[in-house]
Amino acid sequence: GTAARDGHPRPGGPADSPFIRACRRRPGPHTPVWFMRQAGRSLPEYREIRASVPMLESCRRPELVTEITLQPVRRHGVDAAILFSDIVVPVAAAGIDLDIVPGTGPVVAEPIRAAADVERIRPIGRDDVPYVDEAVRQLVVELGDTPLIGFAGAPFTLASYLVEGGPSRTHAKTKALMYGDPELWHALCGRLAEVTLAFLRVQIEAGVSAVQLFDSWAGALSEADYRRYVLPHSTAVLSGLSDAGVPRIHFGVGTAELLGAMGEAGADVVGVDWRTPLDVATHRIGPDKAVQGNLDPAVLLAPWPVVEAEVRRILAQGRAAPGHVFNLGHGVLPETDPDVLTRVVALVHEVSSRRADQ
Ligand code: 1CP
């Protein structure tokens, strides 16, 4: 954006951007588009910066966070930036000893299994994550009219990493705790909801224009179990931000059966993966929420005509929703050709703005 360059933001600014308008179910000049994990390993300029800096350290250096967050905005012309960080950053700030191991993901030194372990998760505030506060403030200036999305992991997804000790396909230990000791489960998720809420408030006070709550692994649960064990805690986070004045996005993977329930947690926008067409998703979520999604990230590895047809299909199905933010159904795969992402942004803008002219 040009607004920040002369130090005189235009009226409107990020709050009037196509992305925020779509989140609020207001018409705009085109369908906005950004990509989950857009700042990741698909970009050579990212790999260069990260070559000598461990993941968690890069999240704690505001100048690196700022540069990495801006890279996909410059390159692709996406309608929103997402803060470069990770869902385990606030948990580490809350006192849990963990690391992000290349090729694996988050690994927790002493997994949480008992009440005394839950006590190890301390409340956090701005002074526990000063690098996030600083990076957001710097980014808001650099980005001008382009909105910055803050984010956090939802209690269930965070709990899974903490209880398993690392990434898990089955979430078996997590479910064993959930079913076997519901009291401890709710104590753990209650504590994580407090940390998450505080972490999102820090980002909002520093100036992010929207927040996304990632419950990436919620799709591992039935609707009944989701409602009993997870929804109250995600609701505490999202509804706890109802006075914050920024749109809230709630996202999970494999959540076809949970879309209605996830929509009840208090978000303005519900993220949808590629398994559920957006018109069907809209029917499940209801008319008072926008949707975000839902190109299969693997489609980006296909020949361009396939990508183009899928983008057009998703834009057409997204018209059933009262607001549509174009995105992938999950994060960018590392082997994705970044030029394809740039072409997708241009195509989404072109197709959706031509439609608006008619
Ligand atoms: O542009 C961006 O979005 C980059 C910022 C970002 C975000 C939003 C990163 C950097 N991580 C996340 C969120 C995140 N982290 C989620 C929610 C989104 C999702 O579902 O993908 C989750 C589940 C994690 C956990 C995580 N961190 C994993 C997944 C492991 C698993 O369980 O399968 C991994 C591999 C990481 C490490 C990580 N986080 C981010 C990056 C660039 C990396 C790779 C770092 C490295 O290996 O050096």
From TrEMBL:
Which Gene3D superfamilies does this chain map to? 3.20.20.210
Main localization, broad class = cytoplasm
Site residues (Transition state stabilizer), renumbered to this chain: D86
- Keyword Cytoplasm on entry: yes
Asked if the record carries the keyword Transcription regulation, the reply is no
Q: In which pathway does it act?
A: Porphyrin-containing compound metabolism; protoporphyrin-IX biosynthesis; coproporphyrinogen-III from 5-aminolevulinate: step 4/4
Similarity field: Belongs to the uroporphyrinogen decarboxylase family.
**Quaternary organization:** Homodimer.
Q: What does this protein do?
A: Catalyzes the decarboxylation of four acetate groups of uroporphyrinogen-III to yield coproporphyrinogen-III.
State the name under which the record lists this protein: Uroporphyrinogen decarboxylase
Q: Which lineage is the organism of this entry classified under, starting from the top rank? A: Bacteria, Bacillati, Actinomycetota, Actinomycetes, Micromonosporales
